[in-house]
Design brief:
Blueprint lengths: L3 H11 L20 E7 L7 E8 L9 H6 L5 E6 L6 E6 L4 E10 L12 E3 L13 H4 E4 L3 E7 L1 E3 L5 E3 L3
Parallel strand pairs: 1-8
Antiparallel strand pairs: 1-4, 2-3, 2-5, 5-6, 5-7, 9-10
Length: 169
């Protein structure tokens, strides 16, 4: 016999998942959850757009192409926000359900919607410098509760041969 909670979880996995763009509001005001309210610190400048992407919390799916994830019926969410000219930088992204996910932040400084290694910024909830290697799953893991879960990400940019690190203020 399948318990109601297990049945609901199986039903959620069986449903097709689509990339979702969340309202470009500065916070999760009016959203009950599950969602992440992400405060971004350390922006190099106030140009371009900001993006959050929510991935499954496993190494095989982390940073995988969104089209492939959606074809496979896996979790993927995306939220874009205009870079505010001043003040706090807060972006909201909904999660399909409470649980563990991987969260990626990017600062698309040139607005071309393609990550420019030399120019754009990135960040995760972990505090370690990204360096030169591909980010590891454990740097991006976040637990989303039933309501709105606040987290902070410090943006990092390419800083010479050492790779990505926080921008020197």
């Amino acid at each position: 016999m399948i318990r109601p909670v297990a049945a609901a979880a199986l039903l959620t996995l069986a449903m097709p998942v689509q990339a979702q763009v969340v309202d470009e509001s500065a916070s999760c005001t009016g959203i009950r959850g599950p969602a992440l309210q992400v405060t971004v610190t350390g922006l190099k400048d106030r140009t371009g757009r900001l993006k959050l992407e929510l991935y499954p919390a496993n190494a095989d799916d982390f940073l995988k192409d969104d089209t492939d994830l959606m074809k496979e019926g896996k979790v993927f969410r995306r939220a874009w926000a205009a870079t505010p000219m001043s003040g706090a930088v807060v972006i909201c992204i909904r999660a399909p359900a409470p649980g563990r996910y991987a969260l990626l932040f990017t600062h698309d400084r040139d607005g071309k919607n393609k990550f420019n290694f030399w120019r754009d910024g990135a960040g995760f909830v972990g505090s370690a410098n990204l360096g030169r290697a591909r980010p590891k799953l454990d740097q991006a893991l976040v637990t989303v509760g039933a309501g709105v879960t606040p987290v902070t990400i410090r943006a990092q940019y390419l800083r010479g041969l050492s790779g990505f690190a926080p921008h020197a203020d």
